[in-house]
Design a protein that fits this description.
2 domains; alpha+beta; 5 helices; three-stranded antiparallel β-sheet; 252 residues
């Protein structure tokens, strides 16, 4: 079954893109209505939402000043975290991953902490910086586009390592190395960066010297996952299942 999904995923991704972004005129309003009812979305449809893809990447009101120094970077369901990186391994939904097998691996994260955030189709799909910092770098890794839900985890025991990823890393004076892996999914043939691009499967590429907490980094074009890891942190919160962008990850 895994190979069936691998085989059809490029065609499926293309079909989703054509339906969401094609020149369908007023038919898009029908698509948007079905999408809102299917996922119970109450966000209004604005004049600029002429296509389903534009509604999917809708904006939301954001604070002018973020009140915490370490925040949830997305609207999401929390699947794991805060959990400790031990022996260079992460445990994601019961599957152990060796950090060292991933090109994004940063040795400084050994002994650090990580979270696994899942974005459902109904969520706001822009992802933001969870912390400020300096020396922002980006890496884009090509890969599969298996679903990141239960089916995907059943199909592959290396799901988060096999799927396409857009990752960012930077340095924070308190949290040390910060790493954000934005993992693609079935239907997501495009993970867009809002702060600059790089070639696929290349080394870390420098983007900018200074990064603000809450700064927009990019967006998914369907539901997906974000894995956040920090080198060090204290007083981390025990979190609920559903989180919003900007929720403090540390006790005040």
């Amino acid at each position: 079954m895994k190979y069936f999904f691998i085989l059809i995923s490029p065609a499926f991704n293309r079909l989703v893109w054509i339906l969401a972004s094609g020149p369908w005129g007023v038919v898009h309003q029908l698509f948007i209505g079905i999408f809102r009812r299917l996922y119970g979305i109450s966000d209004p449809v604005l004049p600029e939402h002429r296509k389903l893809s534009e509604y999917f990447l809708r904006d939301k009101p954001l604070p002018s000043n973020w009140t915490a120094s370490l925040i949830c970077p997305v609207d999401c369901f929390l699947l794991e975290g805060p959990s400790k990186v031990e022996d260079s391994r992460l445990s994601l939904k019961g599957i152990d991953y060796d950090w060292k097998s991933l090109p994004e691996w940063c040795s400084e994260l050994e002994g650090g902490f990580y979270w696994n955030f899942y974005l459902a189709p109904k969520h706001y799909h822009w992802f933001h910086s969870p912390a400020s910092g300096e020396h922002l770098e980006v890496m884009r890794v090509s890969g599969r586009s298996l679903p990141v839900n239960r089916l995907g985890r059943f199909l592959s025991n290396r799901l988060y390592a096999e799927n396409e990823r857009l990752s960012f890393r930077w340095q924070h004076p308190q949290y040390g190395r910060v790493l954000m892996l934005c993992v693609g999914a079935m239907g997501v043939s495009r993970i867009r960066s809002a702060v600059g691009e790089c070639a696929k499967d290349g080394p870390w590429w420098p983007l900018k010297e200074q990064l603000k907490v809450g700064e927009r980094l990019g967006a998914f074009e369907l539901g997906s996952s974000v894995i956040l890891a920090v080198e060090k942190a204290e007083g981390l919160r025990v979190l609920g299942e559903s989180l919003e962008l900007g929720f403090p990850l540390q006790e005040c």
